[in-house]
Amino acid sequence: MTISLAVLDMAGTTVADDGLVERAFTEAVAAVEVSEQDGRFPAMLDHVRRTMGQSKIVVFRALLPETEAQQANTAFEAAYSRLVETGRCEPVPGAEQAIKDLRAAGVRVALTTGFARPTQDAILAALGWHDLVDIALTPADAGRGRPFPDMVLTAVLRLGIDDVRDVAVVGDTPSDVVSGLRAGASIAAGVLTGAGTRTEFEAVKATHVLESVRDLPALLS
To answer: Domain 5-17+91-220: which CATH class?
Structure first.
């Protein structure tokens, strides 16, 4: 099997999450007057946990009316960016070297996220990763976020990959795996460094379950 492109998720896969999404979510819903003591909060937090990896505005739209969803999404992005700017952003151990090894082996690398562009850019800047990968995409760049295949296919088109079967998609949520399978990737792998469990990955028919993205270069060699 020849892999020409690796499409890698960010938070939980290449970037350590360490609860940042949940902290930012708590601040976001507080902006629309839903506190942690609100009776709605536990179910809302559970939904956020179950939809990790998906477009954040889509997640908020499932929880709130449109105006409040937009307000909460803006507050979420601002809160997450503040956490990143205060040094609460680190790579998953071995992730940066794995990306370098993939590119040295001739594999193009795309980073994808459920965050908006300003938050993705803040993360890339904090880690010094703007020049580490070939392309970085958000749901807005592709049309739809995960579990749809749009970001994977956008990376394929923009990087001139000839065959979707030459693609490996790796992420820490079932949504990442489903997006890879829907795109026709030969490898749609889950990693155990974030939100997803081995059982969840097996349930959505992941081609592989890896301990970490650092194991990807060896899988492709």
So the answer is: alpha beta
